Every structure is written in C-alpha cells, then in structure tokens.
TrEMBL record:
This is Pyridoxal phosphate homeostasis protein. The modification N6-(pyridoxal phosphate)lysine is found at residue 41. Keywords: Pyridoxal phosphate. SUPFAM superfamilies: PLP-binding barrel. The keyword Cell division does not apply. Residues 15-243 form the Alanine racemase N-terminal domain. Gene3D superfamilies: Alanine racemase. Belongs to the pyridoxal phosphate-binding protein YggS/PROSC family.
Amino acid sequence: MQRDGARARDLEARLAAVRKRIATAAEAAGRTAPELIVVTKYFPSSDVRILADLGVRDVGENRDQEAAAKAAELDDLALTWHFIGQLQTNKAKSVVRYAHSVHSVDRATLVAALGKAVAAEQERRAGAGLGARDDLECFLQFTLDAAATSGGRGGALPGEAGALAEGVAATAGLRLAGVMAVAPIGTPPAAAFERLLRIADSVRAVDPSATAVSAGMSGDLEEAVAAGATHLRIGSDVLGPRPAVG
Ligand SMILES: *Cc1c(COP(=O)(O)O)cnc(C)c1O
C-alpha cells in the first residue's frame, strides 16, 4: 500500500509537469494544446490504472503481446489504446481487438492486413453478440531521416505518402487519421517536424479530414507543439526511466 501510494504521488507529479509543459508550449505557439497519449510500454498495468485515476484516457503501446495483455486486464476502464510500434502483418488481427488507432502504418501490405483484420473482427463481434467496433484510425508513419533511401521499416518515404493515403482511404474499416513520425537522432527536431508537416499537406490532399499529426516525445514535445502536432506520445517524462527489457 505504502509503495503504491508513493508511485501514485510520483506519477501525479510527473503527469502534472508534462501537462504544464504542453500548456506552456501551446500558449507560446498560439496553438490549441495537442492530445496527450501516455506511452506505458514496459510499465505494469498497475501504473496504467493509477494514470487512469489521474484522468489519462489515451495510452500508447508498441508491442502487441504486452498491449493485448494490459488491455484485457484493464477492460473495466474506459481507455483508448494507441498502437505506436512497428507492426508485423500477422499481428494485425490481435491489434484490432483492442486498438482504437495504429500510428505506425508504413506500407501497403500492412494497410491490406489491417483492413482484413477489421472485417474479421466485426464478424467475430457480431457472432458473439457484441456491438461493432469503430473504424480503425490509421496514422501513416514516415521516416524523417533525409538520407533514408527506402521506407517500410519504421516509416515510409515521403514520396510514398499519396499512394499510401489512397490505399487507406479505399479500404473499408480503416479511417485515415493523418501522419506520424519520430524525429531522427542527430537532426534538429524542429526541422524534422517541418518536413512532417509538409508530408501532412500531401496526405490531406487525398482526404481533407486527415488532419492529425502524431509527433513529439519526451525530449522534443515543445518543438512538436510549435510545429503543429495534434497528438503527443510521451513515455519516460510521465512514467520515469523505462525498466530494462527482460
Ligand atoms: C517509446 C515511444 C515513445 C515515447 O518516448 P519517450 O521518449 O519515452 O517519451 C513515443 N513514440 C514511439 C513510437 C515510441 O516507441
């Protein structure tokens, strides 16, 4: 009990500090504060429960096995799960059971797999007497490394934006939300996010409602807010340093 109370106070203070940074950055940029997605990967579901008590609704995970287990354990909570990690096509079926969105859609084969998986999930739900799920929100992930010559692992190339966006727009069960990126190491994040915002323009040319921009992590949230991010994915500054992967 004592230890849980200490963890709750720790998370409360860290969360408040992050929310304050977001509000300050939004005000400085003259923008609406983006949505905060708290990235809970590697941390136990007890932490997610504390965060839910503190008003967190959106959580991000990057590994299907871990995310599926947490979502099942916490299904009494009204949480929105965002899948933000590299996704193998054979995991699509599992991910659509709990995820509201996938931020890492980076290739046509994954678009097809997610479309098929949502269709199968709707059938499963109907068969089990459950209501239908919402369309899966898809963020197209791009690599912002100017030297990258091939996409597909951890982000498509900017030149692939139009075709990927059209692929999502044409797939039943998927909704094109917008774009996502991780700022590359060794480049100023502001310049990287400017590139992402230009890619976002070409995605919106395909679907004007695809206005979401998922950018900004613990180390670059201010730059992301300034550039016009609509969704921030913050892990360590809310939860503390990640435990070593076992
Ligand atoms: C882990 C992760 C984050 C959160 O990173 P922090 O630096 O801990 O805030 C955000 N986005 C992706 C894709 C991640 O894998």
